[in-house]
Specification:
This protein has five helices and eight strands. The longest helix is centred in the N-terminal third of the chain and has 25 residues. Strand 1 and strand 2 form a beta hairpin. The chain is elongated and about 95 Å long. With about 180 residues, the chain is of the alpha+beta class.
Length: about 180
């Protein structure tokens, strides 16, 4: 009789420990605090404005669907058009005034590159005030010229990627860095 009570007590103790461990597993705030870098998306990105380009969605615990995309993947995508060709297009299409030619800085953009290699939802992330006109012109050219990419690959499968594109401007010369990671 004593051994049955002891076994029952051990079983109850094991079950309560299991329940505590499972509740910690299902509550990410318990495992990772709010300010943790593991569950927080990078602060530099802005919310997606046009989600029609995204291929991947996942169902949350509450039954809602959210976008699923990566920030860094094993095989980063490459644009179908060479970067130096894009730089030549930028230098040919964009006109600087005398004041803008004296500045040098970087303009940051973001875009979604989906699992099919199609890019969209281009947004300006960082643009100095003196380059606002140039930033809008560059954004329009990137939308046209950076539409087709090799798809991003993670674990052998094409996935969606939220990519950063940096455009350095130095005295009217462009250097495109895409994607930045």
């Amino acid at each position: 009789m004593k051994s049955l009570k002891l076994r029952t007590l051990k079983l109850l103790l094991a079950l309560s420990l299991l329940i505590i461990m499972l509740s910690a597993f299902y509550n990410p705030k318990y495992i990772f605090p709010e300010d943790s870098r593991y569950i927080d998306k990078p602060k530099i990105f802005r919310p997606i404005l046009d989600s029609s380009i995204v291929c991947s969605w996942y169902e949350t615990w509450s039954g809602e669907y959210e976008l699923e995309f990566f920030y860094i993947v094993e095989h980063m995508p490459r644009p179908k058009i060479p970067i130096d060709e894009i730089e030549n297009i930028l230098e040919k299409e964009i006109r600087f005034n005398a004041q803008e030619l004296s500045y040098n800085d970087t303009i940051g953009f973001q875009c979604v590159i989906n699992c099919n290699g199609k890019a969209g939802d281009f947004q300006i992330l960082k643009c100095p005030d003196e380059f606002i006109n140039i930033g809008c012109q560059v954004l329009n050219i990137l939308r046209k010229e950076f539409a087709a990419w090799d798809p991003p690959i993670q674990r052998g499968k094409p996935v969606d990627l939220l990519a950063l594109i940096a455009v350095k401007i130095d005295k009217g010369q462009f250097e495109v860095i895409a994607p930045v990671y």
